[in-house]
Amino acid sequence: MTTTSEPAASDVAPLLTDLPGVDAVGLEARAAALATRSIKKEAKATAIDLAISMVDLTTLEGADTPGKVRSLAAKALRPDPSDPTCPQVAAVCVYPDLVATAREVLGDAPIGVASVATAFPSGRAPMSVKVDDTTMAVEAGASEIDMVIDRGAFLAGDLRKVYDEIVAIRAACERPDGSRAHLKVILETGELATYDNVRRASWLAMAAGADFIKTSTGKVSPAATLPVTLLMLEAVRDYRDAFGRQIGVKPAGGIRTTKDAIKYLVTVNETAGLDWMTPTWFRFGASSLLNDLLMQRQKLTTGRYAGPDYVTID
């Protein structure tokens, strides 16, 4: 497809209106078929290392402390202290007030510091609060911002409000030196109710300037699912075909095992293609997933599972 310039604000409503409806039965059948794919031992080892490198190691609890974040950041630097060949993770994701703590531990390591913002997880706050939330995180050293859309506005049909908020938060991601924190837009797909809404929200976020579209906060059930992620991968693939800009995808919440992660990697490869098979364009929002990946990695290396004390408890 011949690419064109990205849509202006006045063009977004017609763009969303023209989106085709989602064949729910076909989408779920395709996701189920991809989930049955198996990979051999050598490919599995490669997939495990790739999945580790795609993890946004996350702690987003009210009881988070500086000590917990320091521990998490240290784990991001050396996921397996006994094996220096183990890849580092992509990022550490924390609340805005703990960004500086994570940045202090990570230093200049090529690991992102992601911060949730915009009244996470509900997104229900005045625009000024959302902008201040984002600005504080960026000034503290966040290299990535995970914002939540106003699902109430979206479901009420006020798409322009959602679009304008994404544009404003993207602007708040800019730094005085001209650089900008990358913006991940959380759709909270478990609250959007239909696949058609997920597709519409995905295109809206991309048109407003998202660098990534993300399924969930991890605070709502269901969180990430394979059919929803497949649909979002189709959206970023089609958006690049139409407008020439590549956008990442981040499923978050509920992905806990190596088997699950491999299903997602197969889906990325078969849907969007090799261009998305990198931490630059695909991430897992997870905490417990990393431990299972590390244990499965050791199993492939040694032929046996590690004891219960092999990995840290996050």
TrEMBL record:
Signal peptide: none annotated. The keyword Cell membrane does not apply. It catalyses: 2-deoxy-D-ribose 5-phosphate = D-glyceraldehyde 3-phosphate + acetaldehyde. GO terms for cellular component: cytoplasm. The keyword Lyase applies. CDD domains: DeoC. InterPro entries: Aldolase_TIM, DeoC, DeoC/FbaB/LacD_aldolase. It is an enzyme of class 4 (lyase). Its EC number is 4.1.2.4. SMART domains: DeoC (SM01133). It comes from the Bacteria. Pathway: Carbohydrate degradation; 2-deoxy-D-ribose 1-phosphate degradation; D-glyceraldehyde 3-phosphate and acetaldehyde from 2-deoxy-alpha-D-ribose 1-phosphate: step 2/2. GO terms for molecular function: deoxyribose-phosphate aldolase activity. GO terms for biological process: carbohydrate catabolic process; deoxyribonucleotide catabolic process. Keywords: Lyase, Schiff base. NCBIfam families: deoC. Belongs to the DeoC/FbaB aldolase family. DeoC type 2 subfamily. This is Deoxyribose-phosphate aldolase. It comes from Mumia flava. The lineage of its organism: Bacteria, Bacillati, Actinomycetota, Actinomycetes, Propionibacteriales.
